[in-house]
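Appendix B, record 7
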Amino acid sequence: MRPAHRPGETVGGSVSRQGHDSIPRTRVPLRAAAAVCSVLLWCWPVFVVAAESSDRDEPDAIEVSESLTVTDTRLRDRARTADGPQRSVPAHVTVLERVEIERGNVETLQDLLATQAGAILFDEIGDDVSKTLDLRGFGGSGTRVFLNGAPLNDPRNNSLALELVPLDHLDRVEITRGSTAALAGGGSEAGVINLWTRPGGPLGGELSAAAGEFGTLDLSGSMTTRAGATDVALSAALYATDGFRENADGDLVRGGLDLGWDLGAGRRLDLSVVSGAADFGNPGALTLAEHDSAPERSPFNSLDFTDESLTQAVLNLTTNLGDRWSLAANLFGRDRQTDALTTGRAAPAFGGFFLATETAVIGSAVQLGRGRESAASGSYLSLGVEWLDGETDAAGFGTSASDLGRVSPDGLASENTTERRTIGLYLQERWQISERVTLTAGARYDEQEVAYRENSPSPTNDDARDFSEVSLRAGLAWSVGAAHSAYASYGEAFLPPTVEELFSFPLFGSNPDLRPQDSRSLELGFRGRWGGGRALDLALFQIDTEDEIVFDPDSSLGLFGANVNIGEARRRGLELSARGDLGRTARAFANLTLMDPELANGPHAGNTLPLVPEERLSIGVDVELPHALDLRAVVSHVGDQVLDNDDANSAERLDAYTVVNARLSWSPRSDRGATLFVDARNLFDERYATRGIFAFDFQTFTNEAFLTPAPGRRIMGGVEWRF
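C-alpha cells (predicted):
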C-alpha cells in the first residue's frame, strides 16, 4: 500500500500511483490494532477455558433458515440463533444465506445487493469497484449497515466502503427496508443491512482462481474447522485488474478471521476480525460527447486515485440468564484510512488536491431480552444501550498546476480533527397476541455530539453541534395459515448532518446551521410461501422526509454552493420479489421495484428526485444441464434517471440500461472436488453509465452533463476446488 501523510509529519514528493517513495507514513492502523489487543486481553481467560474444554462433545448444529428466522432486534440476543420468525416481522425483509451469496458470482457486496428489490448501484469514481449502494432512493446516505452487530458507516460523513468487506467471509446478509431508527439509530431512513460472518464448523473449505480480460486476476480461499467447543473460520481474497478504462487499474485485498467458543448453558463468545485494502485509480466522469466517442479514456483525471484500508474487530457475547432472560453484548474497534488525489478539468487553473484521513472508532452495545414465546401467545421485550466514539484526523494539500502529482509542506491547505459521539437507548416489545397475530412496538432515544477542530488554515473555525431525537416504530403482522402472512407498519428515522456537511469545508460547501433530516415510513406487505421453495414478497411503501439535506450549487452560503435543507420529499413505491423452483432442474427469481420519487415543496415541487429510477427489474435463472453442467443468467434493467444536482429536471436524463450476466460451470461432483467455470459480465456489451451529474464545466464555463462510464463485456474463466 502507498504511504501517506498524517498531521504533523514532514511531507514531500510525488503522489503518483506508480511511485512508492511518496509522503511517508506508517500504514499500521494503530488505534484499531490497540482495540484488537484490548479485546484479546479482555477475553484471554475465556481462551484458556475454551482450550481446557476442547474434549467436550461438539455442540449441536443449529440451522437458520430464511423462511423461519430473521434478526429483528438490534443484536442477536439468544445464543446461536436469530431472533424471531420472519412472518412476524412488520417489514420487507430479504435474507441471503451462504449458498445464495456463492450463487451470486460477484466480487463485492455492492454487486450482490444490486439485484435485490429496492437497491441500485451508482459509480462516482469510475473504477467499477468503489460503487455506492442506494436503497429506496436515498442516494447511499440513508442505509445503516452493521457487521456482526457493529456499525460500518463512517462517523465523519456516513459513507460506506462495502467493497472492503470480505464477501467470501460472509455467512448471511439481512436487508430490512423502511425507516427503522427505533431499531438501529440515526441514518436508517431507507433501512438496515445486517452482515454476519461465517462461524466455524467441520473441517472444510474452498479455493478459487480466475483470470480474464483487462488483465484481471481473482484469487480466494476459505476454511473452517472445529475442535471441541472452539470453532474457527478464516478467508482471504485478492482481486487485481488493469482496468477497463485509463487509470481504472488497481487491486483489492480482503480477509477475515472468526473464533467462536461455546461456553455451555446457552452461552457463546465470538471474536471476528475483518480487514480490507483497495488501491484504485479514479478515472472520473466524461461529457456526453466524450462518453459517446471514447468511454475508455480518462483525459482529465489520469493521476487521480484512492488508496483505502479498513480493519474492524468485534467481540460478541450471547448468554441465557435463566428461563426468561437473555443478554447480548458487543465491543468493537475500527480503523479506516484513506488517501486520495483529485485533479480534474479545473486543475490547469487551480491545481489538484490531496487528502489524507484516518478514522478510529470504538463502541459497544448491551441488550437484555425477556420473555417466552409459543405458537399461540407470549411476548418478547428487548431493551438496550449503545455508544459510539469516532475521531477523524484529516490533512489536505494543494498541488500546483505545473506538477499536479507533487505534494510539499508548503501546499498544506487544511489540517483538522472531527469527532462524533453517539449514545442510544432503545426498547422493543413483540406480543404474540394469538396464533395468527403479532404486534411490535419500539422506541429509541439518540443523542449525538459532533465537533470540529481546525489547526489550518484558521483555528477560529472550531465549532460543535448537539442533536437529539426520539424515534418510534410500530407494526402488526397477521399469519394467513402456516406459511403466508400480511403486515402493516409505521417507522421513523433521522439523518443528522455529518461533520463534513457542517464544518469541514468553510466557503466550499459546509453549512453549520443544517438541521437533521427526518423521515416517516408507512408500509403494507404480504409474504407467501409454497412448496418447492416458491416465495412471493410484496411491499407498498411511502417515505416522507423533512429538511432533506442536499448540495445546492446556487446557494450563496459558499463560493460554489453549499449543503442546504431543501424541505420535503416523498418516495412512494412497490417492491415485488418472487423465487422458486421451475421443475426439478431449474430455479428462478425476479425482483421488481417501481418508484415515484418527488420533491414535495419549494420551487421544484412535483419534480422527480435526482438519481432515482422509476423502475428496476432483475430476473435470474439457474438451470442444471446434462453432463454436470450448470447455467446461471441474470438480466438487470434500470430505468432512466434525472441527473444529480438537477432538481429543476431541466437537463437530459441519464439513459436506461439493461445488462446480462451469465455463468457456465462444470462440476463432476456436487459436494467436493473441482468446478470449472466461465463468467461473462455484460454479455451483450451494453454501453451505459450508472451515474450522471449536472455540473459546471471549467472547459466551457457552462453547466454540462457528466457521465461515469460502466464497463463493457468481460469474460473470465477459472477453477474452484472444494474440500
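Remarks on this record: Residues 1-12, 18-67, 79-83 have pLDDT under 50 and may be disordered. Residues 13-722 form a domain with the Maltoporin; Chain A fold (CATH 2.40.170.20).
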